[in-house]
Inverse folding.
């Protein structure tokens, strides 16, 4: 009973927090790119809560499960409404095409869309597959956003963005380094890249990362629809993967210089939970990166000394990213 009540309070408190974050989207004075990143964070928060509810379904009574589903639906509806309200309005158009606003996972799948099974995901998918978007970066006192970049090396500034969030989306053949404390990391649709971030005092949400190297120090790591990546990790909770394959994990070494998240005591880099593997035995979707394949200490000095002028191809080649 105590566990049931604790979980109910967890859902209630998280839902209240998300509602507040969604309401803040209407009053923010940030530019459109940063506001879109904040909306994405809200969507990810709803996704995470949905996953928690789904994983707790076997311990929940039917009427509680219906209540949780209504909470998720209400959050999705609220986010859609706010995103519609803050979207730029056209002054005049002869025709209009309704835009589909992404919704978060419900406790049984995607609201309004089929559940992804990874069968139609392709690591070869171009970052431009989701329509043309202007390339560039955006920053504010609380966020840094990098969108649709290619053959580019970006360093998150310091100290203005310490404690903020970092967003990377629709990019390929890029190097992103954030070695100042941040609140969160969100990546979506990144291919053939090197992503370095930490310490992250919250969660790292990584979606559709392919043929890349992720070097991260965080409190929580969640990876969805990722393929063929090396992950060097410092994480104070169980890493979670879903719809992922060919994932290789190794511990993040101290000499990288990223530090550890606040309150971190144990590195659980190899205690990976695969939500798509509920059978006995080890999941075939991830493995421990062999010692022979791990980078030598001299490679890490490249990360420590990265500057904006470094050639991207040289950096990627050093980490075996083609």
């Amino acid at each position: 009973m105590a566990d049931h009540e604790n979980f109910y309070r967890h859902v209630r408190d998280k839902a209240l927090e998300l509602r507040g974050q969604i309401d803040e989207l209407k009053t923010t004075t940030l530019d459109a790119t940063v506001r879109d990143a904040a909306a994405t964070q809200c969507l990810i928060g709803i996704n995470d809560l949905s996953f928690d509810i789904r994983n707790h379904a076997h311990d929940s009574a039917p009427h509680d499960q219906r209540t949780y589903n209504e909470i998720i639906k209400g959050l999705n509806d609220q986010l859609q409404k706010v995103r519609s309200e803050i979207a730029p309005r056209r002054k005049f158009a002869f025709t209009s095409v309704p835009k589909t606003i992404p919704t978060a996972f419900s406790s049984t799948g995607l609201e309004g869309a089929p559940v992804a099974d990874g069968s139609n995901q392709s690591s070869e998918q171009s970052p431009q597959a989701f329509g043309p978007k202007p390339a560039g970066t955006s920053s504010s006192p609380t966020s840094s956003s990098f969108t649709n970049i290619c053959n580019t090396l970006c360093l998150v500034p310091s100290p203005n963005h310490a404690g903020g969030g970092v967003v990377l989306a629709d990019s390929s053949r890029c190097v992103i380094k954030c070695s100042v404390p941040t609140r969160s990391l969100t990546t979506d649709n990144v291919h053939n890249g090197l992503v370095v971030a930490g310490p992250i005092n919250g969660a790292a949400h990584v979606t559709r990362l392919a043929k890349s190297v992720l070097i991260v120090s965080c409190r929580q790591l969640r990876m969805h629809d990722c393929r063929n990546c090396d992950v060097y990790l410092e994480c104070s909770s169980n890493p979670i993967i879903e719809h992922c394959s060919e994932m290789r994990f190794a511990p993040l070494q101290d000499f990288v210089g990223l530090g550890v998240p606040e309150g971190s005591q144990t590195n659980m880099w190899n205690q990976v939970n695969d939500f798509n593997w509920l059978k006995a035995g080890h999941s075939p979707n991830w493995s421990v990166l062999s010692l022979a394949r791990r980078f030598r200490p001299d490679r890490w000095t490249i990360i420590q000394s990265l500057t904006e002028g470094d050639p991207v191809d040289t950096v990627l080649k050093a980490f075996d990213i083609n």
In short: The longest helix spans residues 2-27. Residues 233 and 269 are 6 Å apart (CA to CA). Confidence is low (pLDDT under 50) at residues 91-134.
